[in-house]
Write a structure and sequence with these properties.
single chain; Glutaredoxin; two-stranded antiparallel sheet; globular; disordered N terminus
Length: about 190
């Protein structure tokens, strides 16, 4: 098990490190997704005009996603009640993370979904979006537990991206190690 964790960590670092700051979110593409309220969202078009803080997660994640979401919540708190920055978390697990599941995930964490959207879509759309934003995500083999319910994990990049109002990625952070003060300064420069 420790060797697998080491391999995944190395892969995530390599994937994160290969991204340029000036990458554009999914260059010239618009992705049809659903938010936590089952409303259509065109990503990134519906968020243009505001800087975004973008992360990738899945609600059944046993480790990284919980910490990354917590770091984003700390950043959201540090920014205060501002409405000039949009937070977006995109599910890497559209098979299980339907809108209602994402809504429950946000509600259980006390997240205001007015300024923080949780998005999901078809498997093909999410795969294309990840490719466009240079995010690694690979589902492990599927197992069934004693109840016959499918179980799997998703190995993925641990990334939080700061995106300007035009969709250009200005900074990429390791989500679990997000320096909140540095991210606030980066966002303030974009406003």
């Amino acid at each position: 098990m420790p060797m697998k964790v080491l391999f995944i960590s190395l892969l995530c670092m390599l994937t994160l490190g290969s991204c340029r700051k000036d990458d554009i979110v999914a260059v010239g593409r618009t992705f049809s997704l659903l938010n936590q309220e089952n409303k259509d969202v065109r990503f990134p078009d519906d968020f243009r005009g505001k800087p975004m803080v973008v992360s990738f997660l899945y609600t059944n994640c046993p480790t990284v996603c919980v910490v990354t979401t917590h770091r984003m919540a700390l950043l959201r708190t540090e920014l205060g009640d501002r409405d000039d920055v949009m937070f977006v978390s995109i599910s890497l697990d559209p098979r299980r993370d339907r809108p209602g599941v994402l809504n429950d995930f946000a509600r259980l964490r006390g997240i205001d979904t007015e300024s923080w959207q949780f998005l999901t879509g078809s498997i093909g759309t999410i795969d294309s979006l990840c490719e466009g934003m240079n995010v690694y995500a690979q589902r492990s083999f599927i197992e069934k537990n004693e109840n016959g319910t499918e179980y799997y994990t998703i190995d993925h990049s641990d990334v939080i991206a700061i995106v300007d109002r035009n969709g250009v990625i200005r900074e990429r952070y390791t989500g679990t190690e997000l320096d909140v003060e540095k991210a606030v300064a980066e966002i303030n420069e974009l406003l």
